[in-house]
Amino acid sequence: MRFRAALAALAGVLCIAAASDPSERLPDPAQEARARAIFKDVRCLVCQNESIDDSEAELAHDLRQVVRQQVRAGKSDAQIKQFLTDRYGQFVLLRPSFDVGNVALWAGPFLVVGFGLVLLLFKLRNREPETELSQAERERLRRLSQDGLN
Amino acid sequence: MAELGDFALILGLAFSIAQLALSASARLRRSTVLAAAGEGAAFAAFVTVATAFGLLMHAFVVSDFSVANVAANSHTEKPLLYKVAGTWGSHEGSMLLWDLALTTYGAAMAFFGRSLPRGLKATAVAVQGGLGAVFLAYTVFASNPFVRLLNPPVEGRSLNPLLQDPALAVHPPFLYSGYVGMSVVFSLAVAALIEGRVDAAWARWVRPWALAAWSLLTVGITLGSFWAYYELGWGGWWFWDPVENASFMPWLVAAALLHSAVVTEKRGALSGWTVFLGLAAFSFSMLGAFLVRSGVLTSVHAFAVDPKRGVLLLIILGVTTGLGFALFAWRAPTLSQGGVFAPVSRESALVLNNILLAAATATVLLGTLYPLIREAVTGEAISVGPPYFNLTFMPLMAALVLLLPTGPLLAWKRGDAAGVTQRLWAAALIALAAGLAVYAIQDPRKAFGALGLALGAWLICGAIAELVERTRALRVPAVESWRRLVGLPRGAWGMTLAHLGLGVFVLGATFETAWRAEAAETLPIGGALNVGAYHLVLKDVGPIEGPNYDAERAIVVATRDGRPVCTGEPERRLYLAGGQTTSEVAICNRGFSHLYMVLGERRDGASGPVWLIRAYWNPLATLIFLGPVIMALGGVISLSDRRLRIGVPRRREQAA
Fold first, then answer.
1. pLDDT tens per residue, chain A (150 residues)?
2. Residue A115 neighbours by CB under 8 Å, 6+ apart
3. Spatial distance between the Cα atoms of B536 and B569, rounded to a whole number of angstroms
4. Do residues A87 and A21 share a domain?
5. Is the pLDDT of residue B489 over 90?
6. CA-to-CA distance for B137 and B150, rounded, in angstroms?
7. Residues B115, B648 contacting (CB under 8 angstroms)
8. Which residues of chain A make contact with B378, given a CB cutoff of 8 A?
9. Which of A35, A135, B142, B411 has the fewest Cβ atoms nearer than 10 Å?
10. What's the pLDDT at A3?
């Protein structure tokens, strides 16, 4: 029974999609689905890059409880996220807010596209017309085509 | 033996320095003798580093715990495969694997590069020697895997049991040969800049190396993703984790490089950009190595944190990429501009491909590094998680996928938009119909899922339309079409397969993400739960004993409409040496879909023990991993193309 005791002691160490645990679930499936959707956007603060939907850490458990209570109380998604950021700062949201400090983050990829397109247009516009053959080339062409005839 | 390994490693460092010095002076003095000596040094560096690697592996196999690295990462009870894999399971060992890859590529370049002009080859071998010297010096002086312990322990501390898995055991060798394969491209790019010549021939020499590295990286990333899927036990396969991102960035850049190199090879255009990508690919590989090892990012994959090593790696990264890009800034303006092309042409399509892939790389880079930058500047910590990538990366990829099938059907220089439309309308119609049908049939209704499916179908049908066009199927007799099909160059097959593989991946990823079903219950023996169309009954849970772990194994019987479908045996393991628990999921294959079962913790119920059982229905999940395998296969087939094997006819030796 050695390993059973150890298993019991270690229960909870393993991180596996903890949010689906039936003992935590809300009775109303629609509310539960809403809570689950919010979980995916909330970071488990003490974990390494996991949402509270995935983490089995104690803090993630507490945060899930907070979110579920608020969903049950009829708060909107925005209100719940506001509550969390007031308490824990922007760090708690896995989706960074659209504020001034994050301009480079959100706009960066699309600036790259814009910059690339401008360069492409520039290159297409500045297409050199098919250059005329120079005197020497024309002479060479004439000789070559004569070779072909002979 | 460890001292011998240490000695071999230092010898490898000496040979790498000799390789740099001999090849560089060979280039300066235009001496074939010195060039041959430099290539000899490249071989010697490879042989010595391989010896050191073999000796470290030997220490792991015989469990020589007087070697600190073995004591920290191995255990006598570990199965042989994982003792061998332990060689690269730690920071020090994985750096040695990196060095081995670097010197192997150096020797390969010396051996296979016979068609290269002498000057270019000597410079490239010298640069490769320089890279080898830098990383070997780092290994020898800052991360030596052969350090002995004064008081060897009787038993080792074992490898993290999550990593004790066949897919993960072979994942690093693939990943590293992919990462480091980009070093050859880097060396050739630097050499081309020094020589001041980037032309069609250069692009053709770069292509096989880039193809090989990209294919290996594809396999490496897929293995890692597959491991996460069945080992971490929550059914996900990509988490936008910083370390996954670190491996994904060189992949994206290499994909862009493969496409721009085609333009440089066929039309002599974009040469500066191709060189830039060649430098960027290995820079991103090194950035990945730095991010994983420095501890600046918190990630489930990160190696043990050591700030001193982080700083050293940052210096290596800064100096090598800094020198590369400074050289680029200096020499690139002298490169020829190359051919002109019309707005509707294959060149334009490939440029758009590169713009979108570059933007996608920028997304991943920003998402990975922006939190660090913002915290350093403002002191406020933010998180960048999957929701960010869904809003930025996904639209860029959708645009790329929309564009993709038109590329191969457009002519170089000036394409025919009406002709392409005519060849692709059937594919577009099928994709649209498939999307609409799925939108109507699948429950629950998901517009994004339907859109993703339509995009996947568009890619697959587009690839088929391209084959039809190439073989003139339905327009000439079938025998003639068959003859054309068989006669297609392998490079063309490779491209079609890679595009087809992407389509297969998009199908799988879309379906799995949009229509996965999840269920979790605490069940007593005999209890049941429903997931998707399946009914699962927990028949039994019993103890089993593994080689270095104890476990509980559940027997779960799945039925559909009363008919038995399969029996899953998920396990929950306890590794005694380190005290960690892991879950071994059970996966039932149903066609390309998975019924995925996880045994969770044991609890006390009202009448006797109950177990937390979770189950997922993951539709078409196999395609997520099959797609990249097809893509990598495309890369390998393209690599076997006769044109690459034989190479371009040797051009007259420049007055180099």
1. 233 333 333 333 333 456 667 777 888 888 888 888 888 888 887 776 778 887 777 788 888 888 898 888 888 888 898 898 888 888 888 888 888 888 889 999 999 999 999 988 888 887 655 566 777 778 887 777 775 554
2. none
3. 12
4. yes
5. no
6. 24
7. yes
8. 101
9. A135
10. 36
Q: Which of A92, A96, A112 sits opposite B362 (nearest CB)?
A: A112
Residue A48 and residue A14 share a domain:
yes
- Domain end (from A95, A121, A139): A95
Task: Give me the pLDDT at residue B532, please.
Answer: 87
CB contact under 8 A, A21 and B388: no
Do A68 and A142 belong together in one domain? no
DSSP B45-93: HHHHHHHHHHHHHHHHHTT-TTBHHHHHH--TTS-HHHHHHHTTSSHHH
The CATH number linked to A31 is 1.10.8.640
Domain region containing A141: 101-149
A132 in the same domain as A58: no
Residues 6+ apart with CB under 8 A from B400: B353, B356, B357, B360
Query: Are A84 and A124 contained in the same domain?
Result: no
Structure tokens at A109: 């990829």
Say yes or no: B453 contacts chain A, CB-CB below 8 A: no
> Could you tell me if B578 lies within 8 Å of chain A, comparing CB atoms?
no
Residue type, B24: A
Decide which of A55, A72, A95 is a domain's last residue.
A95
* Chain A contact for B571 (CB, 8 A cutoff): no
The pLDDT, as a whole number, for residue A12 is: 35
**SS3 for A17?**
coil
Optimal mutation site among A2, A20, A44, A117, interface B, most CBs of chain B within 10 A: A20
Rg (CA), chain A: 32
Judged by CB atoms within 8 Å, which residues 216-235 of B form the interface with A?
232-235
- A92·B348 Cβ contact <8 A: no
Is residue A51 domain-shared with residue A80, that is, in the same domain?
A: yes
Lowest mean pLDDT among B157-161, B199-203, B638-642: B157-161
Q: For B9-14, what is the mean pLDDT?
A: 96
Q: Which residue has the higher pLDDT, B287 or B478?
A: B287
Helix (H, G, I), strand (E, B) or coil at B199: coil
Q: Are residues A51 and A124 in the same domain?
A: no
CA distance B283 to B416: 38
Least confident range from A74-83, B296-305, B322-331: namely B296-305
Q: By the 8 A CB rule, do B570 and B554 touch?
A: yes
Percent of chain B past pLDDT 90, that is, above it, reads: 52
Residues A40 and A89 in one domain: yes
Phi/psi of residue B640, each to 5°?
Answer: -85, 5
Q: Is residue A138 less than 8 Å (CB to CB) from chain B?
A: no
Tell me what pLDDT residue B179 has.
94
Q: How far apart are CA B440 and CA B454, in angstroms?
A: 13
pLDDT band at B226 (very low <50, low <70, confident <90, very high): very high
pTM, entire model:
0.90
The first and second tokens of residue B606, run together, are 């009202």
Architecture of domain B517-618: Sandwich (2.60)
Residue B211 structure tokens: 């193809």
Number of domains in chain A: 2
Contact residues, B window 511-550, toward A, CB-based 8 Å cutoff:
518-522, 543, 550
Report the greatest alpha carbon distance in chain A: 100
The share of chain B scoring above pLDDT 70, in percent, equals: 95
Exposure string over A96-111, b if 16+ CB within 10 A, otherwise e: beeeeebeebbebbee
The per-residue pLDDT of chain B, averaged, comes to 88
Residue A42 DSSP one-character state: B
Going by the DSSP 8-state scheme, the letter that residue A51 receives in this structure is B
